[in-house]
Design goal:
Elements: E1 2-3, E2 8-9, E3 15-18, E4 27-28, E5 45-49, E6 66-67, H1 73-81, H2 89-101, E7 106-107, E8 109-110, H3 124-128, E9 132-133, H4 135-152, H5 163-166, E10 176-180, H6 184-197, E11 207-211, E12 214-216, H7 231-237, H8 240-249, E13 257-259, H9 261-291, H10 303-324, H11 328-349, H12 351-357, H13 359-379, H14 385-393, H15 407-412, H16 434-444
Parallel strand pairs: 10-11, 12-13
Antiparallel strand pairs: 1-2, 3-4, 3-5, 6-7, 8-9
Helix pairs in contact: 1-2, 1-6, 2-6, 4-6, 9-11, 9-13, 10-11, 11-13, 12-13, 13-14
């Protein structure tokens, strides 16, 4: 589609208008964000240029390459059918919706000034006209291309293998993709159709982890309307671990999720500052004050420690199971439960009272709690890597190379032995105040989007 006002052919997403399927008035020429239908610019009702706003658009005759998806319908259906039972419902339903509506042939070239040029040795006429490949035809191919480029860039004397990952890959290669729901059709139908169509054994995706939208107070994040906090701004005001934890714990897996500063503040304060951060600080500070800067000895583990070990092993297994299933909200809940178990143990044993009557009992409690901190430092790394490193570095364990915790280690809680030196790290998570909350809302907006 050509815009005389802009003096150029418009990329598909630079054409906006009303979706013919759901009536959404801000649909783009490549896809409707509201109903996820894939569109062509000519499908839109009342199209306009996203650059100038001009409605004076012309459909000009031009020559393009097409991917004949209609001829691959049955093959793609069979491939999706072999995988959709394992995929999340969101990914499977979008792929199935496309297939049920019937696959249509799609142009895979564009008249644009930028993009990957059509190769002149294969299509000289199109190359001479300056055609470039459509991004959603070209970009997934670069997943393979980037791996080959990495292999080709190997320094002298080093051999890097790319082909066994992508071509005739064996069963040891499991290919997982993570994406928002608007990208699902391109990765579950269009790119697999391309791979199937070339009749060569290219590796196709095994699992598609699709997400719904993250909204801002129920509406869209918008740079133009200054609504929402974006990554560069977020990292200016708080460390990455705050954001990592919140976003993973509230991932829009089964439905859209709404970001609000109230929810963010409450999550940071309750889960990170109180449940985890306060536990670490209480244990290490109290032990340093009463027993010095080494893990105390104390008595032998008793019934409370046995119960705690069993509970930690159970929760760790749940956490592992949810992580392996890529169920991030449930994994976060299991991790939070692990942290809470430490607090419950500490409240039950009350070393601040034990110290008054039984110093060895208090030492045992603190030693056990320190072993929990070390366990937390290992298993929390996927969510809060910087804070996990700070917890781990509190203990002087030169040979500590553990990448995970076994069930036996979780039950025993004896990785840290008496005499291991430790330090009290700075506060892991600062609590967010009411003043912080109001300042964030003032700066980034904090009201529901108006119709």
């Amino acid at each position: 589609m050509y815009s005389p006002a802009d003096g150029r052919f418009l990329p598909d997403r630079y054409v906006e208008g009303t979706c013919p399927h759901c009536g959404y008035d801000k649909a783009r020429g490549d896809q409707c964000e509201n109903c996820t239908r894939v569109l062509d610019p000519t499908d839109l009702i009342d199209p306009r240029s996203a650059i100038s706003g001009s409605t004076d658009l012309e459909v000009r005759e031009t020559k393009h390459l097409f991917l004949l998806q209609s001829k691959l319908q049955h093959e793609v259906e069979a491939w999706v059918a072999a995988h959709e039972e394992e995929w999340p419902q969101l990914a499977a339903s979008i792929a199935r919706k496309w297939l049920n509506e019937g696959l249509h042939d799609r142009a895979i070239t564009r008249d644009l000034d930028w993009g990957v040029p059509v190769p002149a040795d294969t299509w000289p006429d199109l190359a001479a006209e300056g055609k470039v490949f459509y991004v959603w035809f070209d970009a997934p191919i670069e997943y393979i291309g980037a791996t080959k480029e990495w292999a080709d860039a190997a320094p002298a004397g080093e051999t890097r293998d790319w082909k066994s990952w992508w071509y005739e890959a064996d069963d040891t290669v499991r290919y997982t993709e993570f994406m928002a729901k608007d990208n699902v059709p391109f990765h579950t139908v269009m790119f697999p159709a391309t791979e199937l169509g070339v009749r060569e054994p290219w590796k196709k995706v095994d699992y598609v982890k699709a997400f719904n939208w993250l909204t801002y107070y129920g509406g869209k994040f918008s740079t133009s309307q200054k609504r929402g906090v974006f990554t560069d701004q977020a990292l200016e005001i708080l460390p990455a671990d705050y954001w990592r934890y919140f976003l993973i714990a509230n991932a829009p897996e089964s439905d859209d999720a709404s970001f609000t500063w109230e929810h963010f503040t409450a999550t940071v304060n309750k889960d990170l500052a109180d449940t985890l951060g306060n536990f670490v600080n209480r244990v290490l500070s109290f032990s340093k004050k009463r027993f010095g800067e080494e893990v105390p000895a104390g008595g032998e583990p008793g019934e409370a420690e046995t119960r705690l070990g069993e509970e930690i092993a159970r929760l760790l297994a749940e956490y592992e199971s949810q992580m392996e299933a890529l169920q991030f909200r449930k994994a976060a809940a299991a991790l939070r439960a692990l942290w809470s178990a430490g607090n419950s143990y500490l409240e039950e044993k009350a070393p601040w009272l034990e110290i008054k009557t039984d110093k060895d009992a208090a030492a045992l409690t603190l030693r056990t709690a320190m072993n929990l901190i070390h366990l937390y430092s290992v298993v929390s790394e996927p969510f809060i890597p910087s804070s996990a490193a700070a917890m781990r570095s509190a203990f002087s364990l030169p040979d500590d190379t553990a990448t995970w915790v076994t069930p036996e280690e979780a039950r025993a809680l004896t990785t840290l032995t008496p005499g291991v030196p430790f330090t009290v790290p700075p506060v892991l998570f600062a609590k967010l105040t009411d003043e912080d909350l109001e300042a964030y809302k003032q700066r980034f907006g904090g009201e529901p989007e108006t119709a």
